[in-house]
C-alpha cells in the first residue's frame, strides 16, 4: 500500500493557527497551488483538500497543465482529492480524470481537527468525514489519509434504548466517534469491521495493550456512557491520546480531573 507522502489544504491559511509540517502544507494563493502541483515528485502519494470552488478550480487548472507533460495516464494522476463542499458537475468530471481518488461527503470535521489528523502519522485510524446513502444502506467514511471505506448500516446495532438515526450522521471526538443522533459508535469498531488489514493489526495491538492505563480509562469511560469531551477542562484530544497510549500515564491535576469526572479515585481507574 502506498503511504501518503504529503497533504495540501487549499484556502485561507489565516483561518487557522495550524502551521505547515513535513506532511501538511497550506496553499492560500493560486501561485502557491501551481507551485505545489509542479513540485510534486510522487503524484499518487499526495492528497489535496479543496475548501471552496475557487481553490478547486485553481488546482484543476494546474493539474491539467502538468498532466500534459506526463508520459502515461498513471503519471498524470495527482493522488487524492477531497471537496469540502459538493462540487458542480463541471468540476467533478475533470477531477475524476486527474486524481486517483475523489471524495465528496455530507459531513466533515472542522478544518482545525481535519488538519491535525491529516498531518499526523497515524492518520489512517481516524475519520475526517463521511456520508450515508439510504438507497444502498451504506455509510462511506473518509479516513485521515483521505482513503474511502464503505460499510453496511447493519453494523450499527441498537444498544439498549439507543438506536441509530441515520438521518443525523456526524463525526466527533477528533475523528474517533461516529454519531447517528444520540447513538454513538467508535471509529475503531467501524474500521475493525470493514478493513481486514486494520483488523489484523488491531488484534495484535490489543493483545499487547489490554493492560495499559489508557485501555482501562476507555473501558471505564464507556461503562459510564461518557464521551471523550466529557472531561472539562481537558480537551477531547487529550483523553484520546491517553486512551490510545500515545502519551504516558497522566499524573497530578490531569489524573485528578479524570478521576473526578469518573467518580472514582485515581488508583481505581487502572483496575477496570
Model regions low in confidence, pLDDT < 50 over at least 5 residues: none
Quickly give the structural class.
Answer: alpha/beta
The biggest beta sheet is recorded as: 5 strands, parallel
**Beta-strand share of residues:** 15-25%
The overall average pLDDT, rounded, is 85
Estimate the global geometry from the Cα principal axes: globular
Number of domains: 3
Order of helices and strands: EEHEHHEHEEHEEEEEEHHHHH
N→C terminal distance = 37 Å
Write out the strand line-up for the largest beta sheet, numbering strands in chain order: 2-1-3-4-5
Q: What count of helical segments does DSSP give?
A: 10
According to DSSP, the number of beta strands is 12
Q: What is the alpha-carbon Rg in Å?
A: 20 Å
Helix content: 25-40%
What are the SSEs and their pairings?
Layout: E1 6-10, E2 24-27, H1 30-39, E3 46-50, H2 53-67, H3 73-76, E4 80-83, H4 89-98, E5 101-104, E6 107-108, H5 111-118, E7 127-133, E8 138-143, E9 148-152, E10 169-172, E11 177-180, E12 183-186, H6 187-194, H7 196-209, H8 213-223, H9 236-243, H10 252-262
Parallel strand pairs: 1-2, 1-3, 3-4, 4-5
Antiparallel strand pairs: 6-7, 7-8, 8-9, 10-11, 11-12
Amino acid at each position: 500500500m502506498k503511504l501518503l507522502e504529503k497533504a495540501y489544504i487549499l484556502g485561507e491559511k489565516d483561518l487557522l493557527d495550524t502551521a505547515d509540517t513535513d506532511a501538511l502544507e497550506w496553499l492560500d494563493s493560486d501561485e502557491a497551488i501551481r507551485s505545489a502541483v509542479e513540485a510534486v515528485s510522487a503524484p499518487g502519494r499526495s492528497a489535496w483538500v479543496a475548501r471552496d470552488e475557487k481553490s478547486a478550480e485553481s488546482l484543476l487548472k494546474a493539474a491539467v497543465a502538468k498532466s500534459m507533460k506526463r508520459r502515461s495516464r498513471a503519471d498524470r494522476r495527482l493522488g487524492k482529492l477531497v471537496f469540502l463542499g459538493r462540487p458542480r458537475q463541471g468540476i467533478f468530471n475533470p477531477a475524476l480524470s486527474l486524481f486517483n481518488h475523489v471524495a465528496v461527503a455530507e459531513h466533515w470535521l472542522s478544518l482545525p481537527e481535519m488538519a491535525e489528523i491529516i498531518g499526523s502519522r497515524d492518520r489512517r485510524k481516524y475519520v475526517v468525514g463521511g456520508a450515508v446513502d439510504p438507497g444502498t444502506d451504506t455509510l462511506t467514511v473518509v479516513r485521515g489519509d483521505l482513503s474511502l471505506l464503505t460499510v453496511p448500516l447493519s453494523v450499527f446495532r441498537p444498544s439498549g434504548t439507543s438506536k441509530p438515526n441515520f438521518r443525523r450522521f456526524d463525526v466527533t471526538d477528533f475523528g474517533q466517534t461516529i454519531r447517528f443522533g444520540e447513538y454513538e459508535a467508535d471509529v475503531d469498531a467501524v474500521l475493525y469491521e470493514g478493513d481486514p488489514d486494520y483488523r489484523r493489526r488491531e488484534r495484535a495491538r490489543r493483545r499487547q495493550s489490554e493492560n495499559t492505563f489508557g485501555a482501562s480509562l476507555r473501558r471505564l469511560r464507556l461503562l459510564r456512557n461518557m464521551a471523550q469531551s466529557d472531561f472539562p477542562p481537558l480537551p477531547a484530544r487529550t483523553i484520546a491520546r491517553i486512551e490510545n497510549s500515545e502519551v504516558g500515564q497522566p499524573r497530578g491535576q490531569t489524573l485528578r480531573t479524570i478521576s473526578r469526572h469518573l467518580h472514582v479515585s485515581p488508583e481505581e481507574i487502572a483496575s477496570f
